[in-house]
Amino acid sequence: MGKNLVKSAWYTTDAAFDWLYPERIQLLSKRHWTPVDVAKKAARFLATEPGKKVLDIGSGVGKFALIGAHYFPDVLFYGVEQRRELHHYAQAAKEYTKTNNAGFIHGNFTQVDLAEYDHFYFYNAFFENLDSNGRMDHQMEYSTGLYNYYSRYLFKELDAKPSGTRLATFHSLEDEIPSSYQIVDVSTDLLLKTWIKK
Ligand SMILES: C[S@@+](CC[C@H](N)C(=O)[O-])C[C@H]1O[C@@H](n2cnc3c(N)ncnc32)[C@H](O)[C@@H]1O
C-alpha cells in the first residue's frame, strides 16, 4: 500500500509534483508548467480511447504528459521539447516515477511527424518569441518571425488532421488553430480551451 500511496501523492498538488525537479525548475513552474488540475482536465478530454497517442507540443519538463499518463494509464502521452536540459529533466522524472506510458523527444516540433499522433496539447509554446517576460532563459533565438512561422506551421499540420482530432490549448492566442476546429469547452478563467476537428 505504502508505495502506491506515495506515488499518487506526487499528482495531488503542484508543490508535490514539482518536487520531482531541481529547485531552479520548480521556480519556473508557476509561469511555465501546466498546473496539476489543468493537466488532469485537459488529459481527460484528450484520452478518448485506450492506445491513443497524445502529443504535448513544447513539453518542457514533461509535467502535462506525466500527469496525463498517471491518470490515464491506457493512453500514450508524448512530448517534444526543443531545450535539451528540459527534455533531460522530463526523461529523469519519467524514470523516477516509473511511468511506462509516457515518452519524450528532444527536438523542434517541426521535426516530428504529427501524423503519428491522435490528439494534441498546446501550452502557448511559441509565446516566448513575442514577449521578453515570457522567456525562461536567453539560450534561444527569439523573433516575431519565428512566432509566425511556428504558428503557421502548426496551423497547417492541425488542419491536415482527420475529423475528430482533439486539441486542448492553455493560454493560447489561437493563431495556430484552424477554423476547422470547433470549440467544445472553455474554463471559467478562459485559459483552458478544448477543440474538436469537424
Ligand atoms: C509554456 S512551456 C509548457 C511546458 C509543458 N507543455 C507543460 O505544460 O508543462 C512551453 C515549452 O515549449 C517549448 N518550445 C517552444 N517552442 C518550441 C518548438 N518550436 N519546438 C519544441 N519545443 C518548443 C519551450 O522550450 C517550453 O519548454
Automatic annotation (TrEMBL):
The lineage of its organism: Bacteria, Pseudomonadati, Bacteroidota, Chitinophagia, Chitinophagales. GO terms for molecular function: tRNA (guanine(46)-N7)-methyltransferase activity. Its EC number is 2.1.1.33. Catalyzes the formation of N(7)-methylguanine at position 46 (m7G46) in tRNA. It catalyses: guanosine(46) in tRNA + S-adenosyl-L-methionine = N(7)-methylguanosine(46) in tRNA + S-adenosyl-L-homocysteine. Pfam families: Methyltransf_4. It comes from Chitinophaga rupis. This is tRNA (guanine(46)-N(7))-methyltransferase. It is an enzyme of class 2 (transferase). Keywords: Methyltransferase, S-adenosyl-L-methionine, Transferase, tRNA processing.
